[in-house]
Each structure stands twice: as C-alpha cells, then as structure tokens.
Amino acid sequence: MKATLSNAFRQLRRYPSAVVGCIIILLLVFMAIYAMIAIPYSEAVRLWRGADNVWIQTPRNAAPAWFNYFYREKQPESIVMKTAEDPSLKQVVDLGGGVSTSDFVFEFDYQYDGFPTELSVFFDAQYSAARPNVALKWVTPDGREIPIADLSVRASENYSISQDTKVTRRLGGVVPERGLFADPNNPNKVLKGTYQLVGEGLIFEEGSSVDASLVVYGKLHGIAGTDHRRRDITIALLWGTPVALAFGLVAAVGSSIATMFLGAASVWFGGWIDWLIRRINEVVMILPLLPILIMIGLFYSRSIWVILGVVIALGIFGSGILSYRAMFLQVKESGYIDAARAYGAGSGRIIFRYMIPKIIPTLIPGFVTQVPSFVFLEATLSVLGLGDPVLPTWGKLLNDAQGNGALLNGYFYWVLEPAFLLMLAGLGFAMLGFALDRIFNPRLRGI
Amino acid sequence: MQNIETAQGQSAVMRQRRLSSLNRIVKYVLVRGLTLLVTVTIGVYLAILIANGGGYVDEMRKGQIRESVSIQMAGDPENAFLTLQERRALEESMVNTQIEQLGLHRPFAIRSVEYLWSGLTLDLGRADYLLSDSGSRQVRSILGERLGPTLLLMATGQLLLFFSSLALGLFLSRRYGTFLDKFIIAMAPTSSAPAWFWGMFLILIFAAVLGWLPFGGMVGAPPPTSTFWRFMSTLKHMILPVTALLISSIFASAYSRRTFFLIYSSEDYVEMAKAKGLSDREIERRYVLRPTLPTIITSFLLTIIGLWVGAIVFETVFNWPGIGRLTQQAINMFDTPVIVATTVIYAYLLAVTVFLLDIIYALVDPRVKIGGGGTKS
C-alpha cells in the first residue's frame, strides 16, 4: 500500500493541475495556521462580535487600501491622532485656582483627491463635578478658520462633526466632511494641504484632565477593507480559512470513511443487511438535505460542529456507497479473502484487515473531490443566515454583503474577496482530486 | 398461404413481446413510484420530527387554535357583555375543548402520524407572518404562488443543461484532444462551486458593472401590461439565472459525458459497426449514445438533486420569487409552518423529478425493457 501511495505521488507530479492544486491547498493551510496564531479564537470571536466599540475608529464600507495603486485619484485612508498617545499635541497651562487651559492641535497633511467619509472627535475626560469645556475650530490650508462647536465634555464623549447639523448650516448646507475639505473655488475638489483641528479646553478642577482624539475616516482601509459595521474584513477572511478547511476536510473524510465501512459491511454480510443498506441509501439519496439542515440550524443549534455532524451523517449515503459496493464485490472474490476465511478469520478481521486496506487508495480521490462541495455547503448555509453564530466565515461575509446590497452599492470587494478565497479552496481540492482520480482510476488514464 | 400464417404468427409474437415489455416498464415504474413515496413519507416524517424536537409543531397548531377561537369570540356580540376575566376563562375553555377535539393532548407518536398525513396531503396549515400575494395566510396558497416561478426556472435550466451537456460531450468526444477539449477538461474543477456562486459573479459583471441585464426578480418594475412584453421581460430576467445554472454544472457534466463516450466508443461492437461501414452519425446514435444513456440519466439525476437543493440560495441571490426565496424569507422571519412546508415541497419536487427520470430511464434502458434484470441499483 505504501508503494501504491508513493507511486501515486510520483505520478501526481506529472499532472500540472495536481501541482497547482497542491500549491493552493498548502497556501490555504499556511493561511489557516497564521490566522489561528495571529488572532486567537477568542480574540477573533470578540472582534467579530464588535462589542465595546472596538471598531469605532475604522471607516464604514471602506475599500482595501491597495486600491490606490490602481487609480490616479487617490482616496484617503483613515487619519487617527490621539493626545493620549502623543502628549506633544496637548498643552496644559495652569491659570491658578484649579482652573487651567488644556489646548490641543491636531495637524495633518491631507494630500488625497477624495473627501473623507466621516469626521469624529472622541473625548476622555476626568473630573468630579464640573465638566471641562472644549471649543473646536477648523483651520484650512488657505488659512480660513471655521468654528465647529463648543462642548461641555462628559467622561466619555463621542462628538461626530459629520452629524452636527449646525456645522452643516454654517458651511452653507454642505455636509462637514465635504465642506471642511472643499476648495472654496471648486466645491467638488479637495483643497490639499495641512489642516488643523484646534481645541481650546478649559478645566475647572484640580487633577481634572481632558484627552481627545481625532478620526478622519477614510475611504480605504487595510488589506481587505471594512464592512457595514466597520469591521475589518481581513479577520473574517483569515479566520474563514481554518473554518472552511476544517469543515470541508472533516466532513469529506468522515463521510467517505463511514461510507466505505458501510459499503464493506453491505458486501461482506450480504443478505438482509445489504438489502437494508441499499434501501436506506435509496431513500437518503433523494432527501432534501439543505432544507433538513436549515431546520436543524433553526430549531436546534447553529454551531458549526452540530451542522458538521449532521452533514457527515447524511453524507454517508449517496452514490458513493454504490461504487464502493461494486469495488468490494470484486475484492470479496479475490483469493486472499478465501485464504483468510480458510484460516478462520472473523468478519471484523476480514473487513478491517483485508478488504478495506485494498480500497483505501481509491478513497483518496473520492474525498479530495468531495471537499469543495462541503466547503461550499458551509458557505451556502452561512449565506442563508444559518452560519455559526460567533465565528467569522467566508459565507457570513457573503451573507452580510448580500444583505446590505454590496453589488447594488458597488462594494464589489466585499463580495469578491470571500468569493475568491472560496473559489481558490474549491479549485485547489477539485484540481487535485481530478488528477488523483485519473491516477487511481485506470479506465480514465490516457483519455 | 403459409407465408401469411407465418407473418401472422410473427406479428402475434411481436405483439406479445411488446406487451410483456410494456408490462415490465409498468411494473418497474410502479416499484420506483412506491419507493419514492416511501422516501417522501420518510422525508416528511423526518421534517416533522426535527420541527417537533422543540415542540414547534404543537405550538404551531395551538397557536392556530387560539387565533381562530379569538376571532370567533371577537365576532360574537354576546361576548361583549362579559368581563375581561370571564372572557379569558371562556376562551381558555374553548381552546382546551378544541385541543382535546383535535387530539393534541394525545402522545406525540400517535399525533405525528396525523401530522404526517396532513403533510403528505399538503394540508400545510397557516403561516405565522408571511402572506401570499393575494393576502392569504394559507401556506398552501403561498406555496402555490411560488411554485410556478421555481418550476419555470429550474425546468428551463435543467433541460438546457441536460441537452447541452450531452451535445457538448458528444462534440468533444469526436474532437478529442483539441484545444476546446483540453479547455473543458481544465474548466471541469470550476463546477465544484454551486450555481448561486456563479450567479453572484454574473450579477456583478452584467448587472452591476455593465448594466445590461437586471439584478434579479422575475419581471421588470412596473410590470409590462401586455402579455407579450411581460413574457419578454421574464425571459430577460431568466438569462442570468439560467446561465449561472449552466456554468455551474456544464463543464463537469460535459467532461464526464465525453469520457464516457470515449470509453464506450472503444468497445468492440463499435469497431464492428465501423467495419460494417455505418456512418459516424449512425454509430453514435445506435452504439454509443444508446447504451450510455441510462448511466447518463443516473448521473444527471445526481446533478439535478444538487440543483434542487441549491435552489434556496440560488433564488435568494437572484431575488427570484420562487420556493427557495420563500424559504429564505421564512428563515429570516422564523415562520415555522412555512419552513416545514417548504421542506415537504422540496421532498415532493425531488421525488417527482426522480420519478420522471425513472420513467425515461425505463424507456431507454434495454435491461428494464427486454431482460427484466431488476431495478437499477
């Protein structure tokens, strides 16, 4: 058997599709390992749930950052500045009597052709009774000063400039993220240069302080962009890999091994067992698998492992069992089985030691070609909204994209990225499986 | 004189043979029909068991009773004089009587058989939230409305797929080794992706980027008033879904047909036919296509089962107002009666498709016709 396998391996190298398939699978495996090391399971779940405002500083529906390489008009990435991290931005002057000024200046160079999507200032203040006051002012590169707001800052204050209608009115009805950046001579163009957001703070208590951070939300973010809830799609892309591989491989291996055992038992025992297995097979083969999975997902559990179990249980039956049966019928007639029976080997021994090892080589192309269908099954369930409730997967990305009209709104990257990885996984295993099928199935060789 | 007698004898034998082969076909079809009925029964029973695992079917029925009782009471002017408590008590007692009348207090094992019967006879109850276009809550009328579009789309796609993959397979087996042949082989692995997946790409290219074809739906909005233009609009809306169905399966199907034809055309009897000087067309039809057709139908059957099951997401992606889209809506709204009903309908649809193919199988398989070599398994 070892000889068959190593022989098969040598033959495999002669098929370019098998080589490409192997490379793709290896890449995906590395990606899966990297995902699990870089973002531990609990962290991935926490990030994807998006609690505690983890994603408050990323833009909504941002395209991947590398888009800028392909367009002449450069779109902005997010600019984040924090006084807490860079104390030089802040200046505190004690005026005596517990009162002090706490000024900050956020200065940034804006050299993009596109307007940002949102503008927000986040405050972190410490005080016991009297809230600090902050007056915000916008300074454009050509020296215009635009007052933004006077705020009385709470312990944790999110001030969204983009949603402040007063600023909009002051800018003549233009939304702030456009109006504040527009060239006065040509309102549809960005005035490039150094912008300033100046905050003049007043603190009324000893030991009180105020820290601020400015976020200019861009249109691009990270390697993969963000979704409608500001989450970085990279996380789901990365974590979708181990989930898809594990689901596909476990389901394929599990169901093909179980199918093989059933086929062997069916042939060896014959009689009513054979009859029963064949009848059950006929029935299960045309059961509506997906509706049943949907009901289980809805009424019991959406956990990926429960679904996996059901998929394996129902996947045991199908056309596979018939082809294994045909193979085992041939094996059963071979001389060495008679020999084994002659020396008094039991049924279990004959099935496990003599019949199954003979078939294992043909098992491999079988399950490799099955992997894609299970990977896509998981995606299908997720697209229906029945994905695992906590894990980020490729299918869930597609579901979100579908539900938020990604194609209608032109967020193509949101659909294409998970789709590309799904296709890659599907193609990798399918290409390898096709080549393996030709190697192990001599009838196909040379055709 | 003698000649006439022999001719008569021959025709009698022929008639008898035809009769017995008809007999076999009928018997085969009956047996398959029964098997499929058993399958549907098991599928429906399984659906009921799964749904009832959380007591959902019971809840469903009790909810219906409560609703009908409260409607009945609201319509009765006598009840207007009752206090709220009295009215509640009356309602409760009426509900309980009905529950006992319907036998809902009996053990599940007995009731499940009843549910099975009403499931099998398509007595599917009332939907919790979803309405049919005519405003009915009856699951049966909701499903009835959605069945047509699903059948239209799937039948078109499946028939096109069957004939085009057969034609392409034959064409490739004739032109074995050419660039096109190699191209189709190279494309075969792409068939591992389901139809909805390709549908997404097609929508992206032809609807979102190029804007040539609609994103989804079945007719344009507002729907054209004349029948002809409504038909044309539906046709236009069907281009992308049908293409997606074709792309998702045609490469692998054509590849396997081609391989099959190649294996069969190296059989001795084909060589023999060639030696006899029969035309290529004749050889293909009588010696290659004919013996492979049963196997092809069986493998097509598996493809179709996959297509049917994939229809749920497929219709959702294309916003096609069929059963699949309904299933998705029911999932989102957690409309249990509709979900159970769609499972039942899918069980039936699958069984009917398989049954139709079985009849064709019986008609083309010489073993069923002449030899009587039993069923296919």
Could you characterize the architecture of this molecule?
The complex is a heterodimer of chains A (447) and B (377). By secondary structure, chain A is an alpha+beta fold. A five-stranded antiparallel beta sheet of chain A has the order 2-3-10-5-6, with no helix packed on it. A four-stranded antiparallel beta sheet of chain A has the order 1-11-4-7, with no helix packed on it. In chain A, helix 6 packs antiparallel against helix 12. Chain A is elongated and about 105 Å long. Chain B is an all-alpha fold and 377 residues long. Chain B has 13 helices and no strands. The longest helix of chain B has 52 residues. Chain B starts with a helix and ends in a 6-residue tail after the last helix. The C terminus of chain B is likely disordered. Chains A and B meet through helix 7, helix 8, helix 12 and helix 15 of A and helix 1, helix 7, helix 8, helix 10 and helix 11 of B.
Radius of gyration of chain A: 31 Å
How many strands, what sense, and barrel or not for the largest sheet of chain B? none
| Overall pLDDT metric of chain B | 80
Kindly state the number of beta strands of chain A: 11
The profile of the biggest β sheet of chain A is: 5 strands, antiparallel
The shape of chain B is globular
The separation of the N and C termini of chain A measures: 26 Å
Stretches of chain A where pLDDT is under 50 for at least 5 consecutive residues are none
The DSSP helix count of chain A reads 15
Q: What share of the residues of chain A does DSSP label as strand, in percent?
A: 15-25%
Order of helices and strands of chain B: HHHHHHHHHHHHH
Largest interface: A-B, 53 and 58 residues
Strand numbers in spatial order across the main sheet of chain A: 2-3-10-5-6
Euclidean distance between termini CA atoms of chain B: 49 Å
Helix-strand sequence of chain A = HHHEEEEEEEHHEEEEHHHHHHHHHH
Strand content of chain B: under 5%
Percent in helix of chain B: over 70%
**What structural class do helix, strand and pairing data of chain A support?**
alpha+beta
Based on CA atoms alone, the radius of gyration of chain B comes out at 28 Å
